[in-house]
Amino acid sequence: MKTYQIAVLAGDGIGPEIIAATLPILRAAAHKFGFRLVFEEALVGGAAIDAAGKALPEETLTVCRNSQAILFGAVGGPQWEALPPEKQPERAALLPLRRTFGLYANLRPITCYPELLSASPLKAEIARGVDLLVVRELTGGLYFGQPKGTVMTDRGERAIDTLVYETAEIERVARVAFEAARARKQFVTLVDKANVLESSLLWRKTVRRIASEYADVQLGFLYVDNAAMQLIRQPRQFDVLLCENLFGDILSDEAAAICGSLGMLPSASLGKARFGLYEPAGGSAPDIAGKGIANPSAQILCAALLLRYSLGEEKAALAIESAFRAALSDGFRTPDIASDGGKTVGTEAFAQAILDRLENP
Ligand code: NAD
């Protein structure tokens, strides 16, 4: 029987709750489609700081290296906010994981489900039918550029972040966007700030050149400020949004809000090979952690993406996605998406509804 090793990094806040809700669904999918999943759990984030003194211990990296994919919950929380910036859970765990495994492309599919239109802050006629994909560059730009840091000057402190991109970094993520668009509505929009940023000019030039290899895919350009506005005015105009790191970070959360809750959105971070890290778009949600009410959808949909992109188990991925849709259309809702008066349930019961529909479609 085909066996796959998955590193499970639950992290902090709601991370362990939504991971616990997801693993039985993954197990059931494996059982149904005839393969075996071996889960190896490891510490990350604040939990790892408390237990092992650092956010990404060496043992965790080893578990990840021995795996075909990482299923990641969330990290961070108020307990660790007083730590120096370089020791903070997100910066000290997620960024090195992305860098270590060369995960340069972050894919966030954003779908407005018809059942949840009333949970969207936008009017139903604007949110209806939104189905877009944000492809965000993940290992370059302001988050990694050097020099970076804070120095003392005679006028006070000076903080520096550097926005730097090289051609090859843009080329590889642009190809991910064009390939994805080929399988969708064949339209890529490059989001940049080419009217003021030098790096954006390089993005435009490079993406135009890559576009010539994809004659079947249309290419459009949008300044990031306009993109932020268009996302709430007319989100259906988009298919694939290609963004540098910072713009993608911000716009993907804005796009996420259209669907009603951050708890709905999965993401896949991919590199050259099939290895990937799969994490919900949201964070550790300390405000609801421990209450058993977190929406596990994003984490469960991450599991489907993991099966699709890292393991090539497309049928199992589709089965999870359709069980999820079935639970939604049968009226199951966690509190964050309960505005239409469906059956409001907690994390476990919501996941159980999906599991039931996976086992008995
Ligand atoms: P957050 O995404 O954790 O929460 C924002 C809001 O969305 C909260 O009201 C929260 O309750 C809600 N929310 C998020 N996920 C939800 C879910 N699954 N179900 C229901 N509601 C959900 O963002 P924040 O409050 O800005 O950050 C909290 C902590 O998470 C911080 O320490 C931050 O650094 C960290 N964080 C981690 C990641 C990550 O691990 N990738 C990403 C973003 C933020």
Automatic annotation (TrEMBL):
Positions with a binding annotation for substrate: R98, R108, R136, D225
InterPro entries: IsoCit/isopropylmalate_DH_CS (IPR019818), IsoPropMal-DH-like_dom (IPR024084), Isopropylmalate_DH (IPR004429)
Main subcellular location: cytoplasm
An annotated Gene Ontology molecular function: NAD binding
Any single GO CC term annotated in Swiss-Prot or TrEMBL for this entry: cytosol
Pathway per the UniProt entry: Amino-acid biosynthesis; L-leucine biosynthesis; L-leucine from 3-methyl-2-oxobutanoate: step 3/4
Domain Isopropylmalate dehydrogenase-like: 5-354
Protein's GO biological process: L-leucine biosynthetic process
Protein family per UniProt: Belongs to the isocitrate and isopropylmalate dehydrogenases family. LeuB type 1 subfamily.
Function according to Swiss-Prot or TrEMBL: Catalyzes the oxidation of 3-carboxy-2-hydroxy-4-methylpentanoate (3-isopropylmalate) to 3-carboxy-4-methyl-2-oxopentanoate. The product decarboxylates to 4-methyl-2 oxopentanoate.
Assembly and oligomerization: Homodimer.
Protein name, UniProt field: 3-isopropylmalate dehydrogenase
Source organism per UniProt: Methylacidimicrobium cyclopophantes
Gene: leuB
